[in-house]
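Thread: Newbie trying to understand structure tokens

Hi all, I'm a second-year student working on a class project, and my supervisor (Dr. K.) asked me to get a predicted structure for one chain before our next meeting. I've only ever worked with sequences, so writing a 3D structure as a token string is new to me. If someone could post the tokens and maybe explain what I'm looking at, I'd be very grateful. Here's the chain:
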Amino acid sequence: MSVAIMQPYFFPYVGYFQLIQAVNVFVIADDLNYIKNGFINKNFILLNNEAFRISLQLKGASQNKLINEIEVGENASKLLNTIKEAYRKAPYFDDTFPLLESILLSKEKNLARYLGNLLIKISKYFGLETTVLFSSEIDKDNDLRFDERIMDICERLKQDKYINPIGGVELYDKQNFKDRGMSVHFIVNETSGYKQFSSDFIPNLSIIDIMMFNSKDEIKELLNQYDLV
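---
Reply by user tm_fold:
Sure, no problem. This is what the structure looks like when written as tokens:
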């Protein structure tokens, strides 16, 4: 049984959803500090065949606050208009846009819950059956840090395998996990390109881009294009 623990991101790229697919339990780390200029409230879409940054407006955002202590702002309608302009001629616009509309226009104002709703709704759209939990709701030792915090959560959830994005390969010592009867693995995104508007493929965009240019069956294939090391 496996678990992943990640901060919630704003329409994250396909690798994030590959991670959700790869585990039995996905924990949204909502009780960690907000990171400025990260992907918690920002991402990139395709606009005029270029990567264009979109940002979810926040109220009271500070790196001294936890993610679940911040509120969502009032620019959801503006973001929807930008997405509509960018993708209205995309092949799966009619399938995707209503879902994005229901997500962005949510009345939920807590940033962590807003993003959690986003991740859960898109995961269901993809047919993923992973259990999603919020870290703040898990009875755990909040004074622990790094490896110890992760292993504590794994033990409390009765999971013996921890999976993390490949970017964290230097952060976690596999021997530490082994000593506690667990294993740690890293997911490597191997997703190939797909047809966008032009012949020049623009990689590393938000999951919105994949949803606009691919059917559900094609998305399932893309979600399976990863390896564990």
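A couple of things are worth pointing out once you decode it. Residues 2-228 form one domain. The chain has a mean pLDDT of 95. Feel free to ask follow-ups in this thread.
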